[in-house]
UniProtKB/TrEMBL annotation:
All residue ranges annotated as the Acyl-CoA dehydrogenase/oxidase N-terminal domain in the record: 28-127
Protein name: Thermophilic desulfurizing enzyme family protein
Listed transmembrane segments: none
Source organism per UniProt: Penicillium atrosanguineum
A Pfam family per the record: Acyl-CoA_dh_N
């Protein structure tokens, strides 16, 4: 549970937006415009909030006021009913201003729709109604590099126990997605549980160089009981996995879906760095007076114009690739949501390789742009007060989530051997 003495931002600072955004968007463009409005608010003091490194309760309140937490949910419960392709664009827009909050939005959209991928039709409806009508924010204790949480069966309940080193957004969440292995089997179970209970104990140890407002520290799960009815994809009466839900390629879509979440907030952070740096260059950067071809303004410097142009070209191409992959994944969901067993492994593999391509490119371009902007802003731009460093720190931190070298190898096997990747916790 959250500790009272943990420094946290004050939700009251964004109270005005609850009334301002009382009417939720009703079109795709209106939803993206709302995401840009959120980014504008966050961008006003993003560098200061990053340095203060407080638990982001105010920022989560802002997301709730905006309606963006409901973006993908069914309209009948108050959601936006937008496809993932729009969700990815919204993540990107928010991440341009604040990578941490863009990441939290992305993880929430994944965890809040987990039932769509591994839940029964009844669980899908019940989960959406619970999350959307209460405007809940969802975190997740699902870090595959750690030992799995242990699950035991106790009558009508399953009981989770264990520890996770990373738990993004949990401290500020209303619900937490738990995942573990059922005792005596090799079967994994996902379930949502209320966060505010005695058995959820946060370490409050997220003090990393980047994405400082994501609350991605550790958590202990002690005897958290969840009804068998909430074990996603499992039959309550038989306590067995539903073959029509958890068989085949469809339930493995959870992994490429979140991999594309990652790439879109990388891309948003890089786009934000370019915009932030260009504004700084226009306002502050001085031309170099010792080059022999002296210019009046930094915006006349050949090397500065060349670098910005090159960064812009690569980011524009990356954005087009990300959008294409998002469209392809959205089409998979639209086509197979009501007929999951019809999804062929080859179709799943193809979309996974589109997403792997995006991961490679956003990692490479994002790191190059967020470090390279210092070359065109100048020495004074390294001041902590400026805050340009946070863009690189944010991308550098999360691109270590899983080695991009393995994505390159995977794509190489796809090109040379026409081999689709075996679904895994990272593919």
């Amino acid at each position: 549970m959250a500790q009272e003495n943990v420094p946290q931002t004050d939700p009251a600072v964004y109270a005005q937006y609850e009334a301002k955004w009382a009417n939720e968007p009703d079109t795709t463009e209106a939803w993206l415009a709302r995401a840009r409005e959120v980014a504008e608010v966050l961008g006003q003091d993003a560098a200061q909030r990053d340095q203060e490194n407080k638990s982001p309760r105010a920022e989560i309140a802002l997301l709730k006021h905006s309606g963006l937490l409901k973006l993908l949910g069914p309209k009948k419960y108050g959601g936006g009913e937008q496809p993932w392709s729009v969700g990815y664009q919204a993540i990107r827009e928010v991440a341009k201003a604040d990578g941490s909050i863009g990441m939290l939005l992305g993880y929430h959209l994944l965890w809040s729709t987990t039932a769509n991928v591994v839940g029964t039709p009844e669980q899908i409806e019940r989960t959406h109604e619970l999350i959307i009508t209460n405007n809940y924010f969802v975190g997740g204790a699902v870090n595959p590099r750690d030992s799995d949480l242990k699950i035991t069966s106790d009558g009508d309940h399953i009981v989770f126990n264990g520890t996770k080193f990373f738990n993004t957004g949990g401290v500020v969440s209303d619900l937490t997605v738990l995942e573990g292995v059922l005792e005596g089997t090799d079967s994994h179970i996902f379930a949502l549980a209320p966060t505010k209970q005695e058995g959820v104990v946060f370490a409050h140890n997220w003090h990393n160089i980047g994405l400082r407002l994501t609350e991605s520290g550790g958590v202990k799960i002690n005897n958290i009981r969840v009804p068998w009815a909430d074990a996603l994809g499992w039959e309550e009466s038989t306590k067995q996995p539903r073959e029509d839900v958890l068989t085949g390629a469809f339930p493995t879509l959870l992994l490429p879906t979140i991999q594309l979440v990652f790439s879109n907030f990388y891309l948003g952070i890089a786009l934000g760095a370019l915009e932030f740096a260009s504004n700084y260059t226009i306002a502050t950067t001085r031309a170099w007076p010792f080059g022999g071809d002296n210019k009046e303004s930094a915006t006349d410097e050949f090397y500065i114009l060349e670098r910005y142009g090159n960064f812009f070209a690569h980011l524009r191409a990356t954005e087009a690739l990300a959008d294409r992959a998002g469209d392809r994944l959205s089409a998979i969901y639209s086509k197979y949501q009501s007929n999951r067993l019809a999804l062929k492994p080859e179709e799943r593999g193809d979309v996974a390789e589109w997403i792997a391509s995006v991961k490679v490119v956003t990692t490479d371009v994002g790191l190059r742009v967020t470090s390279g902007v210092f070359e065109v802003t100048g020495a004074r731009a390294t001041s902590l007060k400026v805050g340009l460093d946070r863009f690189w720190r944010d991308i550098r931190t999360h691109t270590l989530h899983d080695p991009v070298a393995y994505k390159n190898r995977e794509l190489g096997r796809y090109v040379l051997l026409q081999e689709y990747p075996a679904p895994s916790w990272y593919t």
